[in-house]
Amino acid sequence: MNLLFKDSRFSRFFASRTSANIADSIYSIVLLYFVQQSTQSVAMTSFTYTAVSAASIFSFLGGPLVDRYSPPLLASIALFTQAVLILAVPFLIQGGMANLIAILVIVFIASCCRNW
């Protein structure tokens, strides 16, 4: 195990995935809180949670990509795409209820990126 952490590439990859997982947890909690506070609807909060968690159903689609392309490259692209999508959410939140569907779609796509 110690040999793995001596490799700088593994250490960077491990640190990036760990920080991404922590950030995913934080944004999921904040997003669910926002939806609940803005809609006062358990159903909309449930739809949001479904959008976040249902993306794991499609994680098998990433297998052929990982086999064909470089896994570190794919991980970098997925993290970058997820970060850009998540950064768009606060701007949509300012729009209020009208953008809730757009937020759900963006969260779903960002969650799909998380699984690759």
Shape annotation? elongated
**What's the tally of helices?**
6
Number of domains: 1
- Poorly predicted regions: none
- Please report the distance between the alpha carbons of the first and last residues: 24 Å
- Largest beta sheet, briefly? none
The number of distinct β-strands equals 0
Structural class: mainly alpha
Give the averaged pLDDT, no decimals: 82
Please give the radius of gyration in angstroms. 16 Å
H and E string: HHHHHH
Percent strand equals under 5%
Helix content: over 70%
Describe this structure in words.
- Helix 2 runs parallel beside helix 5 and helix 3 (42-53) runs parallel beside helix 6.
- The relative contact order is 0.14.
- 81% of the residues lie in helices and 0% in strands.
- The chain has one domain (8-114).
- The two termini are 24 Å apart.
- It has 116 residues and is mainly α.
- The mean pLDDT is 82.
- The protein is built from 6 helices and no strands.
- The protein has helices at residues 2-6, 8-39, 42-53, 62-68, 71-93, 100-114.
